[in-house]
């Protein structure tokens, strides 16, 4: 059993006062639990999914990008028209779109959605996947390209007169002024765990994203990126985005029954390479984030209040894959643990994608927001974290190991 941290009602100095929630939009019913061979968009499913995010109180949705996926810009534009409030996050690889064109497309999306656009720049974690669309830069130079890309996006959105540029990766003459966003520059997010990712993110990004890690490890990484930002002279630090795959049920015991069933099905899916494009996910992963996730999984399956790493182990840490397991109250308390460490953007997406999105909106988001409202009103923490110990209590550990295959 993990030792319980001392709990009192004092709000930690590192705690974020607010949290916004992110999901990932799914285009069809295929999941890691029940893979459906398809390369297409199920329009009715997609409409239902996006509507469920809006109704459930999510703030953002990520539109992922891969060499075999739908185009993230086009899908983001559809999200903008299907919703009134959700902010679409366009995942964009700099090698696929010239920066001035990217700035134009993002500003167009921002105007169509009245200021809701966000961009998440993916430098590229796999040489093989990058090569599928003609990108042969080594990984360290990809982050250098991202750095130059960020500068050009912001100049295209803000320069009042034409400008020219000759850099390491891009060259042009007499551009602009570019097409403007709705009312202010569009937030730029990046992620990654390499030294190059931290340098670029700390110096230039508005948002820095992490996968779910043990609390102390994540806090050290947050301090690292914020330290780089301060050293660069920044007074506004990058916001912190952390991603989990929660598995919830009415009680902790039922959630663990579901978790053990899920992980067996997920392992079977990945063993058969039956969900999506697995070519870039075979063998040892190249990106540091996946390497860290597998290292945590090798060390232990359970961390802190509810972090479970076995889902990362059986998927070779293919993308965001660490879970939070428990009742809605236990998972909400675990999310608050991360908010207390500085996370203010929390991405939660499930394995039963549509049903989980609905359940999170009904049962998890309100609990987290209720606690944060209590903090604002009283200046003190509420009792949710104290009353739902998860892995800090004996019963939870028993539930976690009872169904272990």
Describe the structure.
The chain has 405 residues and is an alpha/beta fold. The chain has a single domain (20-402), classed as Luciferase-like domain (TIM Barrel, Alpha-Beta Barrel), CATH 3.20.20.30. It has helices spanning 43-56, 72-82, 99-112, 127-131, 139-158, 195-204, 215-231, 252-271, 288-299, 310-314, 328-340, 353-378, 384-387, 394-402; strands at 20-24, 60-63, 87-92, 118-121, 163-166, 171-175, 188-191, 207-211, 239-244, 247-248, 302-303, 307-308, 323-326, 345-348. Strands 1-2-3-4-7-8-9-14 form an eight-stranded parallel beta barrel, surrounded by six helices. A four-stranded mixed beta sheet has the order 10-13-12-11, sandwiched between helices. Helix 1 runs parallel beside helix 12 (353-378) and helix 6 packs across helix 7 (215-231). It starts with 19 loop residues before the first strand and ends with a helix.
List keywords for this structure.
405 residues, 14 strands, alpha/beta, four-stranded mixed sheet, TIM Barrel, single chain
Secondary structure topology:
Blueprint: E1 20-24, H1 43-56, E2 60-63, H2 72-82, E3 87-92, H3 99-112, E4 118-121, H4 127-131, H5 139-158, E5 163-166, E6 171-175, E7 188-191, H6 195-204, E8 207-211, H7 215-231, E9 239-244, E10 247-248, H8 252-271, H9 288-299, E11 302-303, E12 307-308, H10 310-314, E13 323-326, H11 328-340, E14 345-348, H12 353-378, H13 384-387, H14 394-402
Parallel strand pairs: 1-2, 1-14, 2-3, 3-4, 4-7, 7-8, 8-9, 9-14, 10-13
Antiparallel strand pairs: 5-6, 11-12, 12-13
């Amino acid at each position: 059993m993990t030792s319980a941290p001392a709990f009192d009602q004092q709000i930690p100095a590192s705690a974020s006062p607010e949290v916004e929630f992110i999901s990932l939009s799914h285009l069809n019913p295929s999941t890691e639990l029940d893979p459906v061979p398809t390369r297409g968009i199920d329009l009715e499913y997609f409409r239902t999914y996006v509507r469920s995010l809006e109704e459930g109180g999510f703030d953002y949705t990520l539109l992922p990008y891969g060499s075999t996926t739908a185009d993230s810009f086009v899908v983001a534009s559809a999200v903008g028209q299907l919703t009134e409030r959700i902010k679409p996050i366009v995942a964009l690889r700099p090698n696929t779109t010239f920066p001035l064109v990217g700035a134009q497309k993002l500003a167009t999306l921002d105007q169509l959605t009245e200021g809701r656009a966000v961009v998440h720049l993916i430098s590229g974690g796999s040489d093989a996947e990058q090569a599928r669309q003609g990108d042969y830069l080594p990984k360290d130079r990809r982050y250098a390209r991202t750095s130059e890309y960020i500068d050009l996006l912001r100049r295209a959105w803000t320069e009042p007169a034409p400008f020219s540029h000759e850099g390491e990766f891009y060259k042009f003459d007499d551009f602009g002024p570019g097409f403007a966003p709705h009312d202010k520059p569009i937030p730029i997010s990046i992620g990654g765990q390499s030294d190059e990712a931290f340098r670029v993110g700390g110096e230039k990004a508005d948002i820095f994203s992490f996968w779910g890690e043990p609390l102390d490890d994540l806090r050290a990484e947050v301090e690292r990126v914020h330290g780089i930002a301060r050293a660069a002279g920044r007074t506004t630090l990058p916001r912190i985005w952390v991603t989990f795959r929660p598995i919830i049920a009415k009680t902790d015991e039922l959630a663990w029954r579901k978790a053990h069933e899920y992980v067996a099905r997920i392992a079977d899916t990945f063993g058969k390479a039956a969900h999506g494009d697995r070519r870039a996910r075979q063998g040892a992963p190249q990106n540091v984030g996946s390497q860290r996730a597998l290292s945590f999984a090798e060390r232990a399956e359970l961390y802190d209040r509810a972090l479970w790493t076995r889902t990362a182990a059986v998927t070779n840490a293919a993308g965001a894959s660490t879970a939070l397991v428990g009742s809605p109250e236990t998972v909400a308390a675990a999310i608050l643990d991360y908010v207390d460490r500085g996370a203010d953007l929390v991405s939660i997406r499930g394995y039963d994608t549509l049903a989980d999105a609905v359940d999170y909106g009904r049962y998890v988001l309100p609990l987290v927001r209720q606690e944060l409202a209590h903090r604002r009103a009283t200046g003190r923490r509420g009792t949710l974290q104290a009353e739902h110990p998860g892995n800090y209590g004996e019963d939870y550990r028993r539930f976690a190991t009872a169904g272990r295959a």
